[in-house]
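Pasting as-is:
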Amino acid sequence: MRFALLLLCLSGASALAHTPVCRCELNGQKIDCRGGFDDGSNAGGTTMRVISYSGDTLASGALDKNSRFSTKLPSETFYILMDVGPGEMFEVDWRDIDGLNPAMLNHPDGDK
């Protein structure tokens, strides 16, 4: 009986889990991101970091109460990390940012 109760509790916890999602777009020299969860819920307060491919943090902040984050466009290759907590992260690579042309960044692979 105790085992069945434990199993029921564990299966219920996984049913409540939701996955972080984020989409970013270029607006002038600024990147605007909107984050949240796949169930449509808000992720305000979630940590956001802009990280270079060399591992340096270029900018950081948090999603605002409307689940939005903005940062200036870096001059080097980067990704944006949405960090909800242990095991709950979402990355947006610079190549996946709507409106961002590779020629806008300095990177060793030319226009790749």
